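Q: I have 198 residues here and want to know how they pack in 3D. Can you give me a structure?
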Amino acid sequence: MASEATAEATGTETAPSEPQARHIVYCGVCTLPPEYCEFGGTAKKCKDWLEKNHSDLHEKLYSEEAVAATLSTLSVDAQKRAAKDSQKKEAKAAAAEAKAAETKAQAQILIKRVERNKRKYVTAVSGLEAHGMDLKKVAKEWGKKFATGSSVTKTASGGEEVVVQGDNSDEIFDWVVDVAGVPEANVDCIEDKKKKGA
């Protein structure tokens, strides 16, 4: 109260200082702050990303001194548990990564040429999402590239496929192999005739 009276008497009022915004770095892999990356499932990838993009922060968090300082605060039993937990997490992450790579290697892309009317065709492509492609972006790119209509539609089995108007199966095969980098063995071209009266 006295400070308010003296401020009014002198005519100078001290403005309350605005809180300053903090600059927080978020991981490019798991989108958590780097201090919490160890709790996600991609700790090794996060560590590599941090070393590549923010080496100073990587040194602060993962240097020998930082790890030793963190472990020194734990009891002997807690240190053993922490080491065991980190080994489990690393093994689990490596197994998940291997499984994802195996699934991607086995995933097939089907390019079907479907007859609409007598000489009109539609090309339907399924299995792109297993190779990490965004179907809407691919459909938009193909629509521009082939100057035709293309869209993402749901299949009867519950999946999604990209449908391109016209017979573009050869060009799509080349694009999938060259641009997307999918091995030729994982791409199948099928000709599907529409049944009469359907």
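Q: Anything worth noting?
A: The chain has a mean pLDDT of 80. The radius of gyration is 29 Å.
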